Amino acid sequence: MIYLFTGSGNSLWCARTLAAELDERTESLVPYKDKPLTCDDELVGFVMPTYMGDIPWLVKSILLQARVSPSSYAFVVMTSSGGASGSSFDNMDRALVGAGSGLSAAFDLQMPGNCVVSTDEQNAERLAAAPDHVDAIARAVRRRERTYESKGKGPEPGFVEGSYFYGEHSLRRLTMMKGFSVTDACTGCGVCASVCPMGNIHVEGGRAVHGDECAACYACLHWCPEHATLLKLPMLRNRPQYHHPQVSLGDVIKSNDTQGA
Ligand SMILES: Cc1cc2nc3c(=O)[nH]c(=O)nc-3n(C[C@H](O)[C@H](O)[C@H](O)COP(=O)(O)O)c2cc1C
Ligand code: SF4
Ligand code: SF4
After folding, report:
1. Taking a C-beta distance cutoff of 8 angstroms, is the pair 39, 66 a contact?
2. Are residues 87 and 182 both part of a single domain?
3. Best mutation site among 189, 200, 201, 202 for ligand 2, i.e. most ligand atoms within 8 A of its Cβ?
4. Which of these three, 142, 157, 182, is where a domain ends?
């Protein structure tokens, strides 16, 4: 099984491509925010975006409730804009040690950025190179290559709260990376509510309204048909929309459905 989390589709595309090469199934992690994840498969993969050099806090909180078979070969692919995963591998290992397995292999995959802007040229290069990179990852996984040595240490108190997006001490407090404004271009179509993995958006008086339960996935920003959802942070306010060219709105709505498909 290959589990995934996505906002703008890079991780979904990667998980889908890997699954096809490995003859595996994919499943979104999103429904597991409300129920424990148990996986007895021999092969278990996780594909997700890098957020501030870490795994998304939503994934951390899901993995804290998960059970993964101790005899599994567990791997992670961190998609990112910079191509480096920071503390993601170690934190993924901690989460998986807590879940019972530990991490066997870890891979970076550089993709177009959905936060800090990458140029059209960079995006084109990364998208063109990605299939070969995923192919190499699939070969390593098929050989059950151990590219990561588990530290054997489970998550410590504050594991989720320590995530950048939670703020250092205040659980679920919005930080600057999660502040959005909705402009007058909003038509109240509800697309942003449909792609939100947290059920954090509703339409009121013909306009999208955001709550406080944000996973910082930026799906609402990138999939809005009117580009009416903008980050408040000045340096990112004018960033263009992006989504993976081979991933559709319907794919992401399905993946981020909190009830599961
Ligand atoms: C809130 C946020 C923080 C991010 N932080 C990083 C980062 O620290 N390093 C990096 O290389 N990319 C970072 N990115 C970019 C994403 O990791 C990258 O574009 C990823 O492939 C997006 O995956 P997705 O399309 O599956 O959502 C960040 C994106 C978001 C939304
Ligand atoms: S997707 Fe855009 S236009 Fe539609 S409700 Fe959300 S913000 Fe408004
Ligand atoms: S509000 Fe936007 S960024 Fe936050 S979880 Fe929902 S879709 Fe993602």
Report:
1. yes
2. no
3. 189
4. 142
Span 151-175, mean pLDDT?
A: 72
Beta strands in 5-164 (DSSP E): 26-28, 38-39, 43-49, 67-68, 73-80, 105-110
Point out the ligand nearest to the CA of residue 181.
2
In a domain, 198, yes or no: yes
CA of 177 to the centre of ligand 2 (A): 19
Pocket test for ligand 2, best of 180, 181, 191, 230 (most atoms within 8 A of CB): 191
Nearest CA to ligand 2 atom 3: 186
pLDDT tens digits for range 51-102: 989 999 999 999 999 999 999 999 999 999 999 888 999 999 999 999 999 9
pLDDT higher than 90, residue 233: no
Q: Classify residue 141 by its DSSP letter.
A: H
CB neighbour list of residue 207: distance below 8 Å, 6 or more residues apart = 182, 186, 188
Average pLDDT (119-136) is 98
